[in-house]
Fold this sequence. Notes:
By secondary structure, the protein is of the alpha/beta class. It has one domain (26-182): Glutaredoxin (3-Layer(aba) Sandwich), CATH 3.40.30. The chain has helices at residues 2-15, 17-24, 70-81, 83-87, 101-111, 124-129, 164-175; strands at residues 39-42, 47-49, 58-63, 91-97, 117-119, 142-146, 152-156. A seven-stranded mixed beta sheet has the order 2-1-5-4-3-6-7, with helices on one face. It is globular, with a radius of gyration of 19 Å.
Amino acid sequence: MRNLIGCLALAVCLASPSFVMKAVAQDPIKVGAKAPEFEMKGSDGKTYAAKDFHGKQAVIIAWFPRAFTGGCTKECKSMKDSGELLKGYDVAYFTASTDPVEKNADFAKSLELDYPILCDPEGKNAKMFGVLKPDGKAANRVTIIIGKDGKVLAVDDMVKTETHGKDLAEQLAKLGVEKNPAKRNPAK
């Protein structure tokens, strides 16, 4: 009888939605948390690490699932098209995926991007940020804004691919991210 009750209790636990969700997906990093010490190679061949930006500049990492797909193409183009708005802030901005460097380099070149795509083919960084899909093969579409202090300022998991660049610039303003000193209007 005890074994039957134990088995029933286990079955109820395993069938509960909260247990199932925890088993198949992880939550993205939370606002206010210290951002992971990421390190990824960019589509431009350079390596980018969190330590390069600490105390110097805010960082945007816009994770997307796969290069050369519809939504990812729209998102990357939107960030390129809004480049001047984004460059108005003291921020380093990137898109990122779990695609290999060569594929992201080809993708960046095909779109004539003016920023690098970070590459995480093993999914190690995506996992640290909590954006890796349950199958471990791709990232979810989640954008993370990290402050100069290394803490997460914003997490956007409701990305509108076609307006993402403009939306990010508006978010940077709302968050009070510093303006880029080189872009300040000298007449003011």
